[in-house]
Specification:
single chain; about 550 residues; 3-stranded antiparallel beta sheet; about 55% helix
């Protein structure tokens, strides 16, 4: 029994060793490996040449027989290779063996039929094919960058022989179609990510500038957290753009050994570490935002004395897991390859676990906040739209807490729709939080209007009380003998200040509404257009609440 490899037939034992040897030769280029194919009296072997600057080094002069039945020999050949590379090579050898069995089991072709004979071409198995036609096979998984949804083909000439490449004089199959589709899809994802990142940057950078430009904003604790949160998105977007165009695009368009990934330079590794750090930092700052808001509501708006613990979590937390991850990558030769882009199996959870814990914690925070809101609204029967506002608050807090990451936590294999959805969710989150908490924020609008009025010498809009006599925003001060004397500056500025977290959620509706039944006397103070009413009020055993009178 024999099996055909390219233009000749070989005995089965020889066919197995020969095809497995050429699987290694085709998968690892001569510039990268020290092994060379040689045909000796003992048969085909892989022989190590002189020492040199090879990616895959073997003892000079050593000889290896590529026989999968010899496990010790396979182990020696795979020693310099990564686990993934060894798996691809052995898979190619196993596929060649299956092709040999298929050639033996298929019925013999008729002699009157003009056709090209069944064969193994080095990567794929082709059956008997009619003369003048083309044979197609699914792209093998061990071809680099190949998509299993594409097909490779081999042309059978009208004279019943396989197509021969004019430059090499050998039978040739076209596997370039296997990578064209994936390269095209990858470039689509790169430009999609670029567009989403540019949109986010165009909103995040002005938002941070606005927060920093107005002292009344930047001294607030929640705004300081917003600035850090927005900055993490800015850093992540910039690093993502650099990574896509310096590394990913180069890998798609450059020859294998000339790409930055294959050269495995220190700069490429450093950029990869920054990429993993900035991605993790956004999760940690999401947790800080959720923890801060949850603490405010659960502790009845007790303002934290310092944000140092939040800075430590948001800045230092991601570095801990990222540095440990990088040390493992650098210290294990098997992982210190291809610019560290290869998956390192269980060690990937060093990055995934803290990120997932941040998301799960924010899910708990959001649920508890929603429960508190609904509980408080039930105690106010005069609030017919309370539940609608609670639902609105939930949707407003979703991008802040990162809950939208839920649909893409699990990553299915080789699915374009998942990659598109992941990129849109990941790279537009910054745009949404900047819109909600800065661009569309009423307090920010007030400061911008006041700034314009000072520069131009005239108000941008007439005061609201001059435009309408049927509605207005008022602050109601309730004095009771048992009320706690809140500090005006910290409480009003950090908690309400016309646009607290609750206000962001409820569109200028606070948790508590005016209740004349409370043990106290209510008096209304109209809100001035420049918010100067705060400076003239004395806080004597009372607190401020906001409502709409119509």
């Amino acid at each position: 029994m024999s099996c055909r490899y390219q233009h000749m037939s070989y005995d089965v034992p020889l066919f197995k060793v020969l095809t497995c040897s050429f699987c290694y030769v085709y998968m690892f280029k001569p510039e990268a490996t020290q092994l060379r194919f040689d045909f000796t009296r003992a048969g085909p072997v892989l022989k190590a040449g002189p020492e040199g600057n090879f990616k895959y080094s073997y003892p000079p002069g050593s000889v290896y027989r590529a026989d999968l039945d010899n496990s010790s020999m396979v182990t020696q050949i795979c020693e310099p290779l990564s686990e993934n590379e060894c798996e691809k090579w052995t898979t190619c050898c196993q596929t060649a063996t299956k092709c040999c069995l298929r050639q033996q089991n298929l019925p013999t072709a008729s002699q009157n039929w003009s056709h090209c004979p069944r064969t193994w071409d080095g990567f794929g198995c082709f059956d008997d094919t009619s003369a003048g036609s083309t044979a197609y096979i699914s792209c093998p998984s061990y071809v680099e960058h190949a998509s299993d949804q594409e097909t490779a083909y081999k042309v059978c000439w009208p004279n019943g022989t396989w197509y021969v490449h004019p430059h090499t004089g050998k039978q040739w199959s076209n596997y370039s179609t296997c990578v064209q589709g994936k390269v095209k899809d990858q470039m689509v994802l790169i430009y999609l990510g670029l567009g989403c990142n540019l949109i986010s940057l165009s909103l995040l950078i002005p938002s941070c500038a606005i927060f920093l430009a107005f002292r009344q904003l930047r001294i607030q604790q929640r705004v300081r957290l917003h600035i850090c949160f927005f900055s993490s998105f800015i850093a992540s977007a910039i690093i993502a753009i650099l990574w896509d165009f310096i590394v990913v695009s180069d890998r798609m368009n450059s020859p294998g050994d000339e790409s930055a990934v294959q050269q495995n330079t220190g700069g490429c590794k450093f950029l990869y570490v920054l990429k993993r750090y900035t991605q993790s930092a956004t999760y940690f700052w999401m947790f800080c935002e959720g923890f801060y808001l949850h603490r405010l509501i659960v502790r009845a708006f007790e303002i934290p004395k310092s944000l140092i613990i939040y800075y430590f979590i948001g800045i230092g937390g991601p570095w801990i897991s990222t540095i440990v991850y990088a040390i493992i990558k650098a210290s294990v030769s098997e992982y210190d390859q291809k610019c560290w882009v290869n998956n390192i199996n269980g060690f990937e959870w060093l990055i995934y676990t803290p990120n997932l814990l941040c998301l799960f914690a924010n899910v708990f925070f959001l649920g508890n906040i929603l429960y508190i809101l609904l509980t408080q609204l039930q105690s106010h029967p005069n609030e017919p739209s309370g539940y609608r506002r609670a639902i609105k608050a939930t949707f407003v807090l979703i991008p802040l807490f990162g809950i939208q990451w839920g649909p893409v936590i699990y990553r299915p294999a080789n699915t374009m729709w998942y990659e598109v959805l992941r990129i849109v969710i990941q790279h537009t989150q910054g745009a949404f939080v900047s819109l909600i908490f800065c661009i569309f924020n009423g307090e920010v609008h007030g400061h911008l209007k006041n700034c314009f009025s000072r520069i131009s010498g005239r108000p941008l809009y007439r005061p609201r009380r001059e435009l309408s006599t049927t509605s207005g925003t008022v602050y109601t001060q309730v004095r009771t003998s048992t009320a706690v004397d809140f500090n005006r500056d910290s409480y009003v500025r950090d908690s309400f200040n016309r646009d607290s977290y609750v206000r962001d959620s409820f569109n200028r509706d606070s948790l508590h509404k005016d209740d004349p039944v409370l043990n106290g006397k209510a008096e209304t103070v109209p809100l001035n257009s420049n918010e100067s009413s705060f400076s003239g009020d004395k806080q004597e055993n009372g607190f401020l609440m906001e409502s709409e009178l119509k």
